[in-house]
Amino acid sequence: MSLQEYRRKRRFGETPEPDHDPQGATARRPIFVVQLHHASSRHYDFRLEADGVLKSWAVPKGPSLRVGEKRLAVEVEDHPISYATFEGDIPKGHYGAGHVDVFDHGTWACEGDPLEAIAAGKLDFVLHGTRLNGGWKLVRTAMKGRQHQWLLIKRDDGEARDADADALLEEPVAKTKTTRSTRTSTTSKVATKTTKTTTTRTSKPASRRNADARWAKRALQLEQAREKPYPHDFKPQLTDHRDSAPNGDAWLHEIKWDGYRLLADVSEGVVSLRSRGGLNWSNDFPEVVQAITALPVTDLRLDGELVVLDADGRSDFTALQKVIDGTSKQPLRYVVFDMPGIAGVDISRSPLLDRKQLLKDLLGDVPGTLAYSDHVLDHGSEVFAASGAAGFEGIVSKRVDAAYVNAHSPTWVKVKHENTDEFLIVGYTDPKGSRSGFGSLLMATPDKSGLRYVGRVGTGFDDAKLAAMHKQLKALATDKAAVALPSHVPFKASSVHWVKPTLVAEVAFRGWAKEGLLRQASFKRLRDDKHAKDLGVASTKPAGNAVPAKSKAKAKHRGDDAADVTISHPERVVFARAKLTKGDVAYYYRQMARWILPEVGRRPLSLLRCPDGVDKQCFFQKHHGTGLGDAVQAIPLQQKSGREEYLYVEDVEGLLQLVQMNTLELHPWGATVDDPEHPDRLVFDLDPGEGVTWTAIKAAARDIRARLQEVGLESFVRLSGGKGVHVVVPLKPRADWAQAKDFCESFAQAMAEHAPERYVATMSKAKRNGVIFIDWLRNARGATSVCSWSLRARPSAGVAVPLRWEELGRITAADAFPLAKALQRAQRLKADPWEGIEDVDQVLPTV
């Protein structure tokens, strides 16, 4: 399904339900929401985020927590992600009229691709919510009905019990809180709204007050403890680096965990989580929040690492990433190694060993979602050697008497078994032999003049990593080199595929060569939790690469400026028959921006969007929505129904933001946003009926051209990328839309009357067999036609390619240029096939 069905059923402006998703960062992990819907038939709406929408089922009786109890779940249309926050009344007379409440929310995960599981009819997943947790199954049945009918079943685990959704309504819900940060997530909004409607602030119960008092008493017994809360939003202590582990009983040694740094604040029993960089992760990891909430204190500060552990207890960063993107159900572990504050007492100045003992007592001996990071006293060299033998990355050595400080400190040092550092990826080379994807990555590091090239890394990749990273790299393609290559490198700059320097890679290496290049470099992982600025890069644009002020506007229109647009799910298949992905589509539009932007820039657009690929349902969109991206502009235009906001773009960033939202086809108006009431382009679309040969279509295009010349109009020709040909007439914007439509209708009718055996000017399919329909209807106000170089949403991935008139005779079909051939054609072109179209000085003749 797609959001087209959702929008078809609703009259926005009359119902408070959201039309589009708001612009902004989404949650790190896929969300779920369950809404209690008091419609004509009371039911629960069960929604799982997948592929940019909420996959939705109506569950009449609501979820059951009883093991194996089957609850009917009727598949309904996809909903926008923003629907997860919706509560309120749908007015009477509208689809789904009645009151809606958020019953539960959180994150969810399954093993593998959720879309494949849904398509197969069996989805096995886990929920991490405030009311619903643990394992569940959705199984599609063979029951007949207008909509697919599924069964929602609770798995046998520690979260199963004798209760169902209605019973859970009577139980209290734990308080949640969204901390202020630079990041906004959909789940944050859900949490905030749910808190308002399902919880109230009360004074701490006596048991919690007594527990706080007991822990405060113990904390105050520590040396240099202070009876005041440790500050909220504290910054983490950071490590220095050493080549060897320190020895002596002044040091303790912990495993260096390979995950994400995570800081926790608990205030009045409400938990908030933050990344090392201060991003709010409170609602991304609800299982961690719940585990911390269960601790017997209502004021707490924790520092640790979020990890996933393998069977041998080693942290697995790749597994962690899969859990975060929702394609693995492995449990998260928050390994806590410090506690600078507890129960209103600041113990940050107390000796580390004392802080850790109190932390261990708080967490207990049985690890679960929360785990204590144990240590060994003294014997640093032996501990380091043992960590290497066990397959760990290294250790962190800490002085036992150290205070907790909010900066780098020599009292915490990391010792690794190999040199690793983080660099920016600035380009890649082609693969050789049987290798796929790319050959090696080009790396750079910041210096005083901008970025400095430090060498290549070509090992450390398996086939899956090569394929996935190649998609990401193609989406960041640019013609501009971020660094200058030294003269001694064994390859030419012209052979490099340059990318915008935004991806941070962690690289292992064996020191530095005398030329300042990495020795024996091996790729470790992408650091998607870090950005260029974390490496000390003020700007990712190299020095001396700026566009002169007088040429900026022209460069922007050509698409020469680099666009910082991230393409999500680049691996998603869009053209199954042609084996092309979303990443391939993004690469195509980035490469073709210099040709496409003159055709679509600053023109109102209609978009054909295909969220599930060309083999599934696609839909047109012409109105602006905030979810499209900040470089997609809005223009209010007066329509019969009132003022409506249409959309347009003016640079490559806007173009790629449309691609990110699964746009395949671009259909511009024949007028610009600067003068929308006076067309400057007319299009005659020659649409062949059954039995019309390609030779006849080409002859018709030449005939149209000749007849237009008779009335003083020059024209240009374009393959439609489908079945026909477009004849395009440029104009000075003098006539209005009514005059343009009258002219085009009269011209088409005259052609049909002159040669009725060849042409027809009416849309009636009954009259089109064996003749060509001259579609003049593209020339009304608000009507659109596909632009030059646009992809077509057809299995062959054809492109609407502009031609010189003299080329038409050599072309064998309207879809003769699929994506790859269109790219090749564009690369070979020395000039625009429509060169001079902007300079044609002609106006619409009188009808």
Automatic annotation (TrEMBL):
Q: Where are the residues of the annotated region Disordered?
A: 1-26, 175-213, 537-562
**Which reactions does this protein catalyse?**
ATP + (deoxyribonucleotide)n-3'-hydroxyl + 5'-phospho-(deoxyribonucleotide)m = (deoxyribonucleotide)n+m + AMP + diphosphate
Q: Which domain of life is it from?
A: Bacteria
Q: Under which EC number(s) is this enzyme classified?
A: 6.5.1.1
Could you tell me the keywords of this UniProt record? ATP-binding, DNA damage, DNA recombination, DNA repair, DNA-binding, DNA-directed DNA polymerase, Exonuclease, Hydrolase, Ligase, Manganese, Metal-binding, Multifunctional enzyme, Nuclease, Nucleotide-binding, Nucleotidyltransferase, Transferase
Give yes or no: UniProt keyword DNA-binding: yes
Key word Nucleotide-binding present in the record? yes
Q: What is the recorded name of this protein?
A: DNA ligase (ATP)
The record lists the lineage as:
Bacteria, Pseudomonadati, Pseudomonadota, Gammaproteobacteria, Lysobacterales
Q: Could you tell me the gene encoding this protein?
A: ligD
